[in-house]
Amino acid sequence: MKVNIMCSNCGKREEIENTVDNAVQIIKSGWDSIGGALYCPKCVEVIKNSRYGDRLAGEKHTFIAIMHWILNARNGEKE
Ligand SMILES: [Zn+2]
């Protein structure tokens, strides 16, 4: 099953397989998060250089955010 994750800033979507490996890969490619919101590598660069830079949650939290995203998508599929 594939899941779309979406950048909360620009709306860019990336389709990933819902596996842990892919969640890790997305983070390695530069996605980050603030709260539950995900941001694409391009927007992360902009945020980093803004006054919100220190709000970026980093790898661990972003992994959890992506797993939540995947679980929500799974639940949505059941309905
Ligand atoms: Zn973006």
Structure description:
- This protein has helices spanning 20-28, 41-48, 59-78, and strands spanning 2-6, 13-17, 32-34, 37-39.
- It has 79 residues and is of the alpha+beta class.
- The chain has one domain.
- A two-stranded antiparallel sheet has the order 1-2. The protein has a two-stranded antiparallel sheet with strand order 3-4.
- Strand 3 (32-34) and strand 4 form a beta hairpin.
- The longest helix is centred in the C-terminal third of the chain and has 20 residues, at 59-78.
- The radius of gyration is 12 Å and the shape is elongated.
- The model has no long low-confidence stretch (mean pLDDT 91).
Question: Short description, anyone?
Answer:
This protein is an alpha+beta fold. 47% of the residues lie in helices and 20% in strands.
Summarize this structure as a short list of keywords or feature phrases.
79 residues, alpha+beta, two-stranded antiparallel sheet, binds zinc ion
Radius of gyration: 12 Å
Low-confidence stretches: none
Helix count equals 3
Find the count of extended strands (DSSP E, 2+ residues): 4
Give the strand order of the largest sheet, numbering strands 1, 2, ... along the chain: 1-2
Helix content: 40-55%
What string gives the helices and strands in order? EEHEEHH
- Major sheet size, sense and barrel closure: 2 strands, antiparallel
